[in-house]
Amino acid sequence: MSKEKLTKRVIDKLEARDKDYIIFDSELPGFGIRVMPSGKCFFLIQYRRHGRTRRVMIGQFGPVTAEIARREAIRMLGNVRGNDGDPAAVRDRERQSATVKELGDRFLKEHVATRCKPTTQAEYRRAVELFINPFFRNQRARTVSSADVSELHGAHAHIPYQANRTLGVLSKMMNLAETWGIRDKHTNPCEDIARYPEHKRERFLSAKEMKRLGEVLTQFEADGSESSYAVAAFRLLLLTGCRLREIQTLKWAYVDLDEHQIDLPDSKTGAKTVHLGEAAVELLKKLPQADGNPHVIAGKFKDTHLTDLQRPWRRIRKAAGLDNVRIHDLRHTFASGGLLVGESLPMIGKLLGHTQVQTTARYAHLANDPVKAAATRISERLAAALG
């Protein structure tokens, strides 16, 4: 292809090949664009320094326009020709100097804080500060290898779920390190690490267990052992199937008792409507609204919600003899309860706010319980008739 001025029109015509190739600008020597086999294009400059040919990426075509790339190329090439700097050397120094901890700090500040929801932010920060930083310490981000990542992953084999989450966070960090020029392209050391198998827990409360839980909730609320708002939170979690944060941060402004629903402006799956049964509506009607506090599960201070429901839950479940039951299992119990009264999986999924059918399908085996019970009753009667 003969040289042309690199404009959007010209670049849009460039076709991907089996191998990457570079097209240089006809007007600005040293300014070019690399076309990858994937079809993505990256602006660059090329120059010679101390007898060596050096290349420095400017940015990807699309996010970076041809006009912006040309202005940046003029500036960078001007520095080279004026002996004011070597962009490749500056780039190399930055790559070599960035530690995993520095990468993690930038990841949390520039990516997580601006793109993730509060619960995800907390999970990512926990993975970075408790697992990634202590392991790598001041190791350079560009030197992290698959062997290093495998060692980190293996060190937490006893907690496979956390090991896999940490691996996922580190992988995202390494992808961004490539985007930010800290690591070379296509060098993510996490890609070949196999995740540990995860077995989803589907614990739900039996009728006897729910009776014990109800007795303890009533007792703890009556004698003041736990806040009435904490007790109400656990009852609402069971009666609505909501996620913990959806109830914990719930505001009265989202509640419509006349329509028997809660309109959440945001949740794990985005905005959603939670339909309320009569028991949940009656609970909300009786729950006092704290003066000047917009939250349903009011905290101790003005305008706050209860921030810690884990410790009250541990005390309650211990008193009820339910030591292995998590708060999230109340959501599972709501789902199983729906199936046991004959509701379909699509209906359960709608009530839970699932966006994927596969998510609800994990409860499918519970739908067989009523059928098995009927088969037992029939077979017992027939067996009795046979003598």
TrEMBL record:
<dbReference type="InterPro" id="IPR050808">
    <property type="entry name" value="Phage_Integrase"/>
</dbReference>
<dbReference type="GO" id="GO:0006310">
    <property type="term" value="P:DNA recombination"/>
</dbReference>
<dbReference type="InterPro" id="IPR038488">
    <property type="entry name" value="Integrase_DNA-bd_sf"/>
</dbReference>
<dbReference type="InterPro" id="IPR044068">
    <property type="entry name" value="CB"/>
</dbReference>
<dbReference type="Pfam" id="PF00589">
    <property type="entry name" value="Phage_integrase"/>
</dbReference>
<keyword id="KW-0238">DNA-binding</keyword>
<keyword id="KW-0233">DNA recombination</keyword>
<dbReference type="InterPro" id="IPR013762">
    <property type="entry name" value="Integrase-like_cat_sf"/>
</dbReference>
<protein>
    <submittedName>
        <fullName>Integrase</fullName>
    </submittedName>
</protein>
<dbReference type="InterPro" id="IPR011010">
    <property type="entry name" value="DNA_brk_join_enz"/>
</dbReference>
<dbReference type="InterPro" id="IPR002104">
    <property type="entry name" value="Integrase_catalytic"/>
</dbReference>
<feature type="domain" description="Tyr recombinase">
    <location>
        <begin position="200"/>
        <end position="376"/>
    </location>
</feature>
<dbReference type="GO" id="GO:0003677">
    <property type="term" value="F:DNA binding"/>
</dbReference>
<keyword id="KW-0229">DNA integration</keyword>
<feature type="domain" description="Core-binding (CB)">
    <location>
        <begin position="98"/>
        <end position="178"/>
    </location>
</feature>
<dbReference type="InterPro" id="IPR025166">
    <property type="entry name" value="Integrase_DNA_bind_dom"/>
</dbReference>
<comment type="similarity">
    <text>Belongs to the 'phage' integrase family.</text>
</comment>
<dbReference type="Pfam" id="PF13356">
    <property type="entry name" value="Arm-DNA-bind_3"/>
</dbReference>
<dbReference type="InterPro" id="IPR010998">
    <property type="entry name" value="Integrase_recombinase_N"/>
</dbReference>
<dbReference type="GO" id="GO:0015074">
    <property type="term" value="P:DNA integration"/>
</dbReference>
